[in-house]
């Protein structure tokens, strides 16, 4: 029996597979750039379902645009106001998608592990578009794509990830993928915003942002996810900003070619000042554009059978 490949975790990607995705994204960007109509016929006749149990306009639109640029049919399924919010289970929804003949299901869910469960119930490829505080593999791929465009080979590059690591699926996926690609990753956060077991991650951990930034090739600021915080993780927003916010002075500690990333949406003035967010070394807007290209590559490779994450 043919088991379709899924993209559920950045850990599913070995170095060669990850580089294949990034190189394919670069080829797609080149192919589309030469066209008057920015569309490829690659997935004509295939159906991609965006299954979002949690709000995320940016990621949903990015996947929708990626699928449409590959000429796929797109169904947007929002759990808000649907039968799901009236008590339908994930399994029931999976059966509905199965009956529709979805070739790929892009799943965003507030519960960690939901896309993994879904992958056992549908025949189509499942792509994890963010599950709880667990993972967000396509975000890590688009971040790596952006980093490679500016820094070249990431082997030996020093990348600093700063902020709310505890609640960040982006941080987890980035740590796994950047390590696979040979980068040296340092996490910087208050002790209260680091997860239990972070000592087993392939990273260095620091509480001193200035020291970590000195000579680094890139810094990725994470959004403080106040909506996921039930307790007091730091005294005040001002206190957090003073210890872990990126301002012009801290930005200038980076290497001369250093760049600034943020997965968005940003809390301007808290984790990053507007001056730095909008500065010449900021690639935050570019990350959004690269997200469409990278997700086109993921959809194309999964549905063409060229991408078999975790198959090894």
Automatic annotation (TrEMBL):
Residues 6-148 form the Aspartate/ornithine carbamoyltransferase carbamoyl-P binding domain. PROSITE patterns: CARBAMOYLTRANSFERASE (PS00097). InterPro entries: Asp/Orn_carbamoyltranf_P-bd (IPR006132), Asp/Orn_carbamoylTrfase (IPR006130), Asp/Orn_carbamoylTrfase_sf (IPR036901), Asp_carbamoyltransf (IPR002082), Asp_carbamoyltransf_Asp/Orn-bd (IPR006131). It catalyses: carbamoyl phosphate + L-aspartate = N-carbamoyl-L-aspartate + phosphate + H(+). GO terms for cellular component: cytosol. GO terms for biological process: 'de novo' pyrimidine nucleobase biosynthetic process; 'de novo' UMP biosynthetic process; amino acid metabolic process. It holds the Pfam family OTCace. GO terms for molecular function: amino acid binding; aspartate carbamoyltransferase activity. Its EC number is 2.1.3.2. Residues 156-302 form the Aspartate/ornithine carbamoyltransferase Asp/Orn-binding domain. Pathway: Pyrimidine metabolism; UMP biosynthesis via de novo pathway; (S)-dihydroorotate from bicarbonate: step 2/3. Keywords: Pyrimidine biosynthesis, Transferase. Carbamoyl phosphate binds at residues 58-59, 108, 136, 139, 264-265. L-aspartate binds at residues 86, 169, 223. NCBIfam families: asp_carb_tr, PRK00856.1. Belongs to the aspartate/ornithine carbamoyltransferase superfamily. ATCase family. Heterododecamer (2C3:3R2) of six catalytic PyrB chains organized as two trimers (C3), and six regulatory PyrI chains organized as three dimers (R2). Catalyzes the condensation of carbamoyl phosphate and aspartate to form carbamoyl aspartate and inorganic phosphate, the committed step in the de novo pyrimidine nucleotide biosynthesis pathway. This is Aspartate carbamoyltransferase. It comes from Nakamurella flavida. The lineage of its organism: Bacteria, Bacillati, Actinomycetota, Actinomycetes, Nakamurellales.
